[in-house]
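Re-run with default settings, no changes from the original entry. Doing this only to confirm the output is reproducible before filing.
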Amino acid sequence: MSITKMILFSGLFILFFSYIGYGILLWMLIKIKRIFSGPAKPLPPFTPPVALVIAAYNEAAFIRQKIENTLALNYPPGLLDIIFITDGSTDGTPDIVREYPAVRLMHEPARLGKTAALNRAMEQVTAPVVIFCDANTLLNNDAVINITRHYSDPLTGGVAGEKKVIAGNGNGAESTEGVYWKYESALKRMDAALYSVVGAAGELFSVRRELYRPVEPEVILDDFIISLRANMKGYRIAYEPGAYAMEAPSASIREEYKRKVRIAAGGFQSIIMLAPLLNIFRYGLLSFQYIGHRVLRWTLAPLSLPLALAANIVLVMQQAGSAYTILLALQVCFYAAAALGYLQALREKKVKMLYIPFYFLFMNLAVFHGFSRFIRKRQSAVWVKAERAPATQRI
């Protein structure tokens, strides 16, 4: 086989495995695991003291709704310590939080970023279980009680909740973002069934207090680093779909792109910081999940797109066979559908046949942009949050 053919088929295989094959393999491994271990046993109720830590920066427009939603959470009285950190906020967010004596406020005038704020808050936390969630999300009533039951297992080091993108204004960002998170949630459910979630989402995740250590201030994806460092200490991260954070979609596809670029830059940073996890002989199943679910998507999968297209064009020019002409036609149709999907997204229109290829290409282009920012050290850990669409649906 020629080098050009190897590049083409290797690229297509990596793309298939990263986005489809990994999920199929997970499903098969879980079936085999259950043959020997049987179905998972129900978790008993477990209600330890909990600290709920919420970092809020300039959230005056939403913070009352967030506080009231938090105070309504179902958990035994006296066992839930609610902490809001509003460092750097200039829009009156701290003053609004002060109106609620049932929650604790931590505020510093300087804005040093979310990571620094979390580190400072953790110095005040004494509860054995810590839950982090974003200030622009709403939690379901039983979120905390559903998370804590997992800690009845001493090998559970953390719990990942589910992110749900709720109804907004019907723009292109909502269409694509919601589909992506449904897909990601399914993968996380299978990851946890096999062994562990690999990288919790910051919208809602939890960790044992004893496993938390201060995160470096330059870290972009604090949630990802915190949860995987717990994994590296021999603990698993459970997944709890019965605990979910609801969030409005990005206000536009441009705002969603900014978010994806930041995540990609943070992904490359995380790969460097978590380099030992690439050693499958040391971490075994965890390394397999980490590489299959995360690393490939941030490295070889995006690179495979242009390489597979270029190799396919060369093979057609060399008249290697009609099969390569058909394959190139399919690739061209895919990119054309993605381009049309982009135009529809700019017009805030939803076309189901187009937004999936568009979002797939959109995510991978953001990886290239994120890599550029990472190499040039242009991505700050202090994030200018993406604008969110007004939501028309709540709990």
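The longest helix spans residues 3-37. Residues 319 and 337 are 26 Å apart (CA to CA).
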